[in-house]
Amino acid sequence: MDLPPGNVSNQSGIAMNSIVRRGLTVIVILFSGCAAVAAQPMAGFDTSHAAGERSLEARFDGAIKAENMRTWMKNLSSHAHHVGSKHDEENAAYIASLFRSWGYDTRVEEFTVLFPTPKTCLLELTSPVTYRAGLAEPPLPEDTTSGQTAEQLPLYNCYSCDGDVAGQLVYVNFGVPKDYEELDRRGIDVKGRIVIARYGGSWRGIKPKVAAEHGAAGCIIYSDPRDDGYFEGDVYPRGAYRSEFGGQRGSVADMPLYAGDPLTPFVGATKDAKRLPLKEARTLTTIPVLPISYGDALPLLRALGGPVAPVEWRGALPITYHLGPGPATVHLKLEFSWDMVPIRDVIATLKGSGEPGEWIIRGNHHDAWVYGAGDPRSGLVSMMEEARGVGLLAGRGWHPKRTIVYCAWDGEEPGLLGSTEWVETHAGELSGHAAAYINSDGNGRGFLSAGGSHTLEKFVNQVARDVTDPETHVSVGERLRAVEILHAPVPERKVLRERADLRIGALGSGSDYTPFLQHCGIASLNIGYGGENGGGSYHSVYDSFDHYTRFGDPGFVYGVTQAQTAGRIVLRLADAEVLPFDFENFTETIALYLQEVMKLADDMRDETEEMNRKIQEKSFDLSADPTGVWITPKGREPVPFLDFSPMQNALALLKGSTSRFGDAWKAAGAARGPLPAETARSLDRLFMDFERSLITKEGLPGRPWYVHQIYAPGRYTGYGVKTLPGVREAIETRRWKEAGEQILVASGVLEHAAGLIDRGTSLLKQ
């Protein structure tokens, strides 16, 4: 996983201190008077079948054992197991053997991918004083595996290019576009220089990308203790947080262009696949980039001169933060072994007895940068225990209606390699058979985090209602609602209290749901717990069994809760009379997204007009331009009128179709028992096709691998989602012609979706 612990999805996962937790207890009481779970509706099931499903889930809960998770984590994290390593292969074989023992038809699928590892990593401060970065994480007696140095990958950023560069140093804060705008206003140019950025503010791969676009010769990324260290709490091993020489490995591939193996976009990386020449791989960086610890960053930042950094740019190191350039100069030399290595996906199948051609796919990756106890082992072992529980039910006579496919992905850390290559290889089959994909990654103590397709929002809320939080003993949904109310601005609290469902987050990128949702149009969810498991082990040698069992989830209590949550999702999707999709929440969410992009255009227009007025009145200094993108001294290019009426009309169609479908569904429910099998099968096909209706063959402008028109990672956010991405990003970058074109594309997609819903209404009326 490339989201730090406690950020399991793009939206939820909130850190809480002890004072907040005491306040939370009071708020939770407000929600403790809910009706008994057994009396609540269950999407996809009529009343009689819902009772049987609850009985099945109770037996499933009784099978979940925390001690199994502990045993598997200790085993699987006992050695470094990065992509291509001996222990990565051994772990895949071990996981496959367990799935076979639980009754699954299990295979290991192998792909061959590009995976560079370092041959030379050198960083030295050459003036005004000299310092050579250690680039090493020291063994700790309190951390059993940290001393296995021969097996550990050194600190590096995967898919950085080779390079030997030297130059003045410039501090660029988080290294995102707006930070360079601030530097421009101050007259600071990074061209030909080496930038140093702190982790945070965006996905790490954005930092060298933006640096290169501004002419930088190299990029250094460090973990500042304000964001990831002693500012937050005691450092490891005394506490959970990142210590002085703890570093963060990670990929810097330009995944907003495409995920997966850099050499095989759009096709699976099988042995005989046609591959791009290395120089044509668009996701590799064009400048060298290296991650370092804050212990190694301190001498570099201390040597900087120039203006003092803005207040919000200052971290927690014991220095005055300066911007440069110089007088600090640095030498950065990187050389990699550009190897092709095997990755191994474990695919375990439990065939359905009623609709075997409809697949419920569940996944979590198994590779790690080093030991990976938290990322991804905590999520993996919970999924494995969940799968064992499902297998146990099958061994005792239960058979799922739909086929269940459990997947342990390899190669997630470098760039979602295992899941992407599998999806690209099996895209045709998935288009015909995949009903839904449920993803998880790292897991820890805390709050439910859920993101995904909004056709599944009501369904997820029902599952959250039916799982008990082990700390507060109310439902995990009630606990999440309480903490969201606690942290919400006062005007928003009333809506949070009164809205029947909690909103789930939209998915950007950062884990293995990306190829399913955004490349193939398969309805997807990302589920996990976190927010009270903060710490600095992420992507370091200290992401170990010792660290996790002390600070991540002692006793694997929330590992059990995660298994109960994801297990219910799988069981209900597998057994429902009709897939539990719903259009109402989706349509409501689309209306919000449309309001946002219309407001974005209006705000940009108002801002531009105000600035241009000030320029004409000579009351505005051009050097103080807050955007850094003025066209002429006479002012900025005006924002033209954008005609959103096609999208407004398409939304009106969608609302009407959704309303009619809801009425037909209620009428059918009042007049019948279970739907006829053929009608249920046709509705299932329609629900599966609905997410496919939100993709286009052409994909997004400039990045055709991403074909979903509602959810995508942003070009300059990486993990952060852009909703209605074609329209939104065209407006943000002032590409007005493209914005108009993308409004028509999005309108067509919504009209197609409305037509599918109308077909569903006709089926129900029959």
Task: Fill in the keyword field for this structure.
766 residues; alpha/beta; Aminopeptidase; Glucose Oxidase, domain 1; Transcription Elongation Factor S-II, Chain A; 3 domains; globular
Structural description of this entry:
By secondary structure, the protein is α/β, with parallel strands linked by helices. The protein folds into three domains: 18-113 and 340-473 and 506-575, Aminopeptidase; 115-339, Glucose Oxidase, domain 1; 584-765, Transcription Elongation Factor S-II, Chain A. Helices cover 40% and strands 16% of the residues. It has 23 helices and 16 strands. The chain has helices at 18-29, 47-63, 66-76, 86-101, 177-185, 206-213, 225-228, 294-302, 373-395, 412-415, 417-425, 427-433, 457-465, 476-487, 490-498, 514-519, 545-552, 557-575, 584-616, 645-671, 677-692, 725-732, 736-765; strands spanning 105-127, 131-132, 157-158, 163-171, 194-198, 218-222, 250-251, 289-292, 329-350, 355-365, 402-409, 434-439, 446-452, 524-531, 711-713, 721-723. The longest helix has 33 residues, at 584-616. The model is unreliable at 4-35 and 624-633 (pLDDT under 50).
Produce a short descriptive summary.
This protein has 766 residues and is an alpha/beta fold. 40% of the residues lie in helices and 16% in strands.
